[in-house]
# Entry
Amino acid sequence: MLKAKNISHSFDYPLFEDISFEIKAKEKIAIIGKSGSGKSTFLHILSTFLKPKSGEVFYNGKNLYSLKEKEFIKIRKKEFGIVFQFHYLFNTFSARENIEAAALLSEREIDEKLLKRLDIFDVLNQNIQTLSGGQQQRVSIARVLTKKPKIIFADEPTGNLDKVNANEVMQILSEYCEKNDAALITVTHDAEISKFFDKVYELKNKRLNIWK
Ligand SMILES: Nc1ncnc2c1ncn2[C@@H]1O[C@H](COP(=O)(O)OP(=O)(O)OP(=O)(O)O)[C@@H](O)[C@H]1O
Ligand SMILES: [Mg+2]
# Structure
């Protein structure tokens, strides 16, 4: 479904070299690694947000960064769902308006049951700025699932959550993938959630190695 070939990238110093990676439908993969190792950067490269210095990313056989603008944007908007490490919710909007924006852009319906399950139903009318960090995190997960993406890229999706909520969020993401033949790539520090993944890789010494 998604294949990265010989990816190298550097900012002020080389982050990784010659990394290849593949994920299939329904597969759930986690990437761990110490802070600053380049996990978020790698996720941005996989998910249309950053063109690597060298190497290619293929989505269903199509070379992502060589696609025409229109098709590229369509994939980002409709097929990929990205939960950013820093949420990038619309701050002047309410929680519900943020989710409505995603529904509108992707031409999907809001799943009210999902909002109940994520335990954000009672805060939907509050302005984003008045929500707790964990509530904002769950709103951003609701926003992404509302798009019904084929691949979910989640950067520390449980970073602000207690154990119970972290488990519930992972459960919801896993079930979503099962039901929709979707794939999940998660960057995480949270060893507790490793049980949800088929594979865990570690980004270390500029390489991606199998960890589990
Ligand atoms: N746009 C950028 N310009 C310059 N340097 C950047 C940019 N984005 C990231 N970096 C640098 O690349 C390195 C890796 O950053 P990245 O955010 O990918 O790490 P990470 O593994 O996700 O860390 P964390 O676990 O703390 O989130 C860092 O040293 C960071 O300063
Ligand atoms: Mg990061």
User: Anything to note?
Assistant: The chain has a mean pLDDT of 94.
